[in-house]
Specification:
Layout: H1 2-9, H2 13-26, H3 31-46, H4 56-73
Helix pairs in contact: 1-2, 2-3, 3-4
Amino acid sequence: MNQAESLFAQSRYEEAVKLFQKVLTLDPKVYQAAFSVAIALSRKAIGTAPKNGISGPSRSIRIAKLLTAILQRL
């Protein structure tokens, strides 16, 4: 978790998300990891240009759905 938080602090969101997801695989009740995934994906979406015609708001909706799915598993 510490390494994921460090990567997050460095704006290395893709790498941080992978580690946060690994934490969730080991213990799905680490709620901070679930929220950190959502925040990292949101920041990544805001900071990048649209790909394949998917705008920032559309990505935000996808991120919200992902967070909902994660929380439903808990």
